[in-house]
Amino acid sequence: MLSNNQLILLSILALTACGGSSDNADSDLIPPPITDQLVRCEVQSNLLQEPSSSNIIFHIEQSYQSLQPAVIAATVNGAESSNYTFNWSQKSGDALVLKSTHSPMLAFTASTSGSYQFELIATGENNSYSAIATIDVIDGQTNQLAIRVDHQVTMGSGVSFRIDTPPSATPENISWCLAAGPDINVDISNLENPLFTAPNVDQDTFAILRASATINGQQSSDDVHILITKEATITSRYFDSPIARTFSYQGSSPYKAILRDCVYSNQLEQSCTIDQLPLIGQESNSGKQQILDRLLVSHQWMGENFEYFLDNLDADSDFATLLQSVTAIVISYDVRPSFYWVATGAIYLDPNDLWLLAEERDTINEAPDYRSGFGNELQFLMPWRYVKNNQYTSYVTPRSTRVNRTPAEMQPDLASLLYHELAHANDFFPRSIHHALQGPTLLDDYETRNSQQLLVSDQLTAKYPLNSAEMTSLANVSFRGESATAQQKSYMPSDISGFFSTDTASDYYAFSTRREDAAMLFEEAMMSHRLGIQRDVGVTDKPEAVSADTITVDWGQRGRVGDDSLQNRAAFVISEIFPELDATTLVKNLPQPIPMAQGATWSENLAISPALKNSVNRAAFTVPADTPAVTLSGSRHQLPVE
Fold first, then answer.
1. Per the domain annotation, does 465 fall within a domain?
2. How far apart are CA 481 and CA 297, in angstroms?
3. With pLDDT > 90 as the criterion, what percentage of the chain qualifies?
4. 348 lies in a domain?
5. Distance from first CA to last CA of the chain, Å, rounded?
6. pLDDT at 75 over 60
7. 571, 587 in Cβ contact below 8 A?
8. Interatomic CA distance for residues 567 and 591, integer angstroms
9. Where do runs of H (alpha helix) occur along 227-299?
């Protein structure tokens, strides 16, 4: 995720990430969480070194128990791990779910006791080593504390761990200490989910954190391990904060050697040329294989799930078509929120929308969105949600509950994310102009198009501008962190309802920049057209405790993009981004908006569609226990700078 310093720098450089403009890039962000230096455990602990017949050294735990998160680590004698790629495979024992096979840290949980063997191949620029690690897993104890998940992290990057909290064995009286490694300052305001920044190290260094707790009256503890890796000095003016290690999903990709260097590197000092990394649609053959050749991931499962989505959940080939306007797709555990960036021509996706197995979700960093404190002084909220048949379509199970999810449960969130980010890519470089791009970089073509106001979003604003100066100014507070004026602090929900409902934006986020205006129109229209999923948007009060049951709607609509006043705007964007579609007919066939009940709660306004309207007592409607937390406008996308 881009840091505050990075955002400042990019605004100075007049670059664009996700589309839009920022006149206040040096505004105050939320303060960092309070962290304290973690106390050292009375009993220290270390992984045991186990040499192999090659230059690989395995680092193993002192014992392995079934049903307990575990790790085997590896180093190459005399070398930093950054000089090697790693590839693990299981050779014997009951089949395990392995989701970190390209890391020097292989995390796993064995369901049964027994002997297990793993092969590691470590490949450097001039040499390659292989070795076999063997471990014995014994039967685990009951009431075990479990921390997830052991992993490698680059120095200076964010780290998160999570303690399992099953209802039948909920840990109590949790405490943390440092069992090995350098001093670490940790935010443990949530004892079940500590967060910290990996310290700088002079060489690859192991750190071990230990949690202790009481489970069903019994004391239990668990160690969780990280390998903090030394990385090359950051020289990039673009990615000037530490980022995760990534690799080409397709080992045979013709762009494997340059993909990371061109789109996600702390050494990226200038944009790659179109000759080096063209848009996918500029290739003579631009099918699925070419898309996968441009896929950069931090974990193999991210690429596998993305490929599955293209094969099985893109029936109309919308995403395969829209992806022609990007140079690459980056999916990494440290991307939050998602964004498009014209400096690289790539989209960057938060993998929280791609996981299918609990073990995959375990690998995703939980560092909070840096914008989460913006707009705290305003007296209103503008929540949103996607619904179908009067039910949420977003995945509802919280991170604390470890379950798998189905591809059908993954689809709505990922589809809406892709429609949005790919709308940005096609706003900047629609397929109709690919043949005319001259370079030498995409930034050069962008500057020409921007200076002449040729982007789709520029033309949208020229033809059908938004008019509310109040909403535009408020968007600077909510999405850029500008300080609210006394007048803005005094606005009540009824004021906002008047400003917003009489204008022609589909969402509050549209007022943050013309780029987001176009992307929001496209996203909402396509979700309704292709999936029959409609977007709710509302204006509510702002009680001290915010939940779907506590916020009260002053004004709201379901399917606002179908409103007559928005149809010309939506049709224009769709026709420019996706000319194969009959945009005018598409928009006319969208369902008419359904008004929300003023004075009812956000949850009570869930059951307003006609199919269930007469069979559900709206006033008595009870939201299911796993209803998602209230989501606010702009929460899933990083505000661009330009």
1. yes
2. 31
3. 84
4. no
5. 17
6. yes
7. yes
8. 11
9. 256-263, 288-293
For the record, the structure tokens of 478 come out as: 């909510």
Q: What is the CATH number of the domain that holds 72?
A: 2.60.40.10
Instruction: Give the C-alpha separation, 447 to 269, whole Å.
Output: 18
Find out whether 524 and 535 touch, Cβ atoms under 8 Å. Answer: yes
> Confidence class of residue 520 from pLDDT cuts 50, 70 and 90?
very high
Kindly indicate the confidence band of residue 68, based on its pLDDT and cuts at 50, 70 and 90: very high
User: How much is the pTM?
Assistant: 0.92
Task: Give the least confident one: 8-12, 213-217, 439-443, 477-481.
Answer: 8-12
Residues facing 631 on adjacent strands:
384
Rounded alpha-carbon distances, angstroms, from residue 315 to 76, 285, 321, 432:
45, 20, 12, 23
Instruction: Domain of residue 456: give its range.
Output: 383-553+560-597
Distance CA 409, CA 421 (A): 20
Domain end (from 200, 229, 258) = 229
**What mean pLDDT is predicted for residues 463-467?**
98
Name every residue whose Cβ is closer than 8 Å to that of residue 547 and which is 6 or more positions away in sequence. Answer: 629, 630
Using CA of residue 585, residue 591, residue 595, residue 601, what is the dihedral sign? negative
Taken as a whole, the chain contains a residue count of 642
Q: What is the mean pLDDT of the chain?
A: 91
Q: Give the full edge-to-edge strand order of the sheet including 151-154.
A: 151-154, 218-229, 205-215, 172-180
Are 204 and 66 contacting, i.e. CB atoms less than 8 angstroms apart? no
480 or 468, which is more confident? 468
pLDDT band at 27 (very low <50, low <70, confident <90, very high): very low
What tokens appear for 435 in the block? 């043949």
Q: What would the two tokens of residue 335 be? A: 């991307």
E strands, 506-618, in order: 534-540, 553-558, 594-595
Q: What is the pLDDT averaged over residues 264-283? A: 97
Q: Is 213 exposed, middle or buried (0-12, 13-18, 19+ CB in 10 A)?
A: buried
Specify the pairing of strand 247-248 against strand 295-297.
Answer: antiparallel
d(CA 544, CA 315): 44
In 319-408, DSSP assigns E strands to: 328-331, 339-341, 346-349, 383-388, 391-392
Band the pLDDT of 628: cuts 50, 70, 90.
Answer: confident
- For residue 350, being part of any structural domain is answered with no
Distance CA 491, CA 110 (A): 56
| 191, 208, 229 - which closes a domain | 229
Question: In DSSP terms, which residues pair with 133 in a beta bridge?
Answer: 118
Q: Which residues pair with 205 in a beta bridge?
A: 228
CA atoms of 523 and 532, how far apart (whole Å)? 12
Tell me: pLDDT of 631 over 50: yes
Does residue 381 sit in helix, strand or coil? Answer: strand
d(CA 79, CA 514): 49
Of 425, 255, 265, nearest to 338 (Cα)?
425
Domain tally for the chain? 2
Q: What residues contact 254, with CB distance under 8 A and at least 6 apart?
A: 293
Cα maximum dimension of the chain:
74
Instruction: Give me the residue label for tokens 């006791």.
Output: 113
Residue 90 host element (H or E): strand 85-92
- Asked whether residue 526 is assigned to any structural domain, the reply reads yes
Q: For residues 574 and 613, what is the distance between their CA atoms, to the nearest angstrom?
A: 31
